[in-house]
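Please, structure for the following, as tokens.
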Amino acid sequence: MCGKGALRVGAAAGSLALACCLSLMPTVAGAWPWSRDMANQISIKPEHGAESVRPFPTRSVPMSGTLTLIHVHDRDGAMKLVNPNPATAESIKHGRKFFQIFCTPCHGASGTGDGLVGAKFLIRPFDLTADNEQKVMPEGYIFGTVEFGGALMPPYGNDLSPSEIWDVVNYVRHGLVAEGAKPTSVASNAPPGGKAR
């Protein structure tokens, strides 16, 4: 009897050990190098921000039409940038297209902060037709805000090239108010409790 009982206990222990090994197999398999084959590679990931795009090597000459990286690291650094895109009808047209895609949900088609998504916020999005946005702040400020985002505004530097962001700046400065949004004063643009960008 003892021999059969010991055999059953041994078989049960063996079955338990096998079940434990099988349950740990996915964990062990996940430790092998092939489990990371596509996730970790040397290619540039778009979610790594503007710094993931490296400058051209020394003495290299970019081909015409190549998008170059603007070397600023934050919104304050962009304040001094000068808009390289003239405010032509074509630039404003491109800027309108990107404004409708990325800015309208919060700022609204009029740019006054009355977008459908912006209406859900406790703090209303900035009024882009205000004197502060249209006349006081430099164009680099708008560029930096779109590129790097603000306190509540997400950054769009991964979604738009620098040239496309400058087109948005041209639309905000030269097309938004001209297309019908009524400009407002600086005082009415200040949200209660501070800036909400």
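The radius of gyration is 28 Å. The domain at 74-189 is CATH 1.10.760.10 (Cytochrome Bc1 Complex; Chain D, domain 2).
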